Amino acid sequence: MVSAVAAADDAPPAARPAARLLIGLGGLYVAQSVIGGVVFTGLPAVMRQNGASLGDIAFILLTVLPWSFKFLWAPAVERFRSPHGGVRRTRTTVAIFGTLAVCAILATALIGPTALGPLTVAIMVASFSSATLDIACDGHAVESVAGRDRGLANAAQVGGAYLGSAIGGGLYLVLLDHFGWRPSTLAMAAVLLVLAAPFLTAPDGARIDRADRPRQSLRHALKRPAVRSGLLLVGLFVLGQKWAMVLIGPFLIDRGLSLSTIGTVNGIGITALGLAGALGGGVVLRRFSVLGVMSAALAVQGVVMFALAVFAASGDVAPAALVATTLVSSGSLALGFVALYSDLMGRASADQAGVDFTLFQSMDAIVSLIGWRLVGLFGDALGFAACFAGSGLLALLALGLLPIVAGRNRGETDGHG
Length: 417
Fold this sequence. Notes:
Layout: H1 2-5, H2 18-49, H3 54-60, H4 65-69, H5 74-81, H6 90-111, H7 116-144, H8 150-179, H9 181-201, H10 218-223, H11 225-241, H12 245-254, H13 259-284, H14 290-313, H15 319-347, H16 353-382, H17 384-406
Membrane topology: Multi-pass membrane protein
GO molecular function, one term: transmembrane transporter activity
Subcellular location: Membrane
């Protein structure tokens, strides 16, 4: 992958149609989520099938940590990708870490699902490479996408996450069932190459960066009020949207839905609604304000959580009502996050876009993990009804505070174009 793009990074700047840029970015976002689907859905299932304990599976899932703490090495990645006074090397960066990710997936195919130690190392390399690739991809998106197209860019990001998860956590399991570990995992590696091709083979359009701009760093990011208020906005929005999501699957099981039914809902229904919400968000943001779309998403999520609380407290509830409520939640979640990340793109500085945007994403991951851990600790004692009702109250609290937080320092750009 590296040699294919070495010449492209030296090419003179070229104007690229928004559609081609968005297709290339979308392919990369799907590829990153394919890796996530393989690691967090496909791999645990096949490990369990091969006799792995839940402790072993939980150990493997620690490989999510690079996504939570990638902000620590984001400045180093951005200094390489976007050197002061030099030509931007986005495609070289994507090619390097994309190659590492593909090689790690190839290694898992050869290692097999029972060798826990080597498998963990390979998956950690894949997770680290994918998270690092995302730093470069987000930085390139912020630099290259025009303001009016930010909603579409974030639709590609959120929609790509849903589609990639469906491939890595859905199609991969089907292939495993029919063809076994090695052919199926090799097929996923091939899928990654295909998805990266549109970005790596497109005209680069690289341009020379200013030599006088500040050195990319976390300190510079955190000095900017727009970044600090953006981090607060992410935490608030995640608080209102995500904390009870981990309870929905177990709740549906307790209410008698079969694994196959839940799998169908997750693989087809939620993916379809998530994609619709993501793509719809890109269009909606051309007509409505970011704040309005985020507020609507929080309001819908609050209603959904209170509805689930009522369902949990009552007796028999029709399975169709449970499924419909879950699907509404998925669609509103996708729509809201398209709006959120569109707003965050505007807060990121063009001087170090990858660093700023990575901070926002890490805040999303860390707040989500904290909430899911708290729900896991206290969910059994409090019960589903109390947890869902509490999540509904958090959504309303976030809705009330959103106009205050979203409006803080929104106009300060510090070099953003």
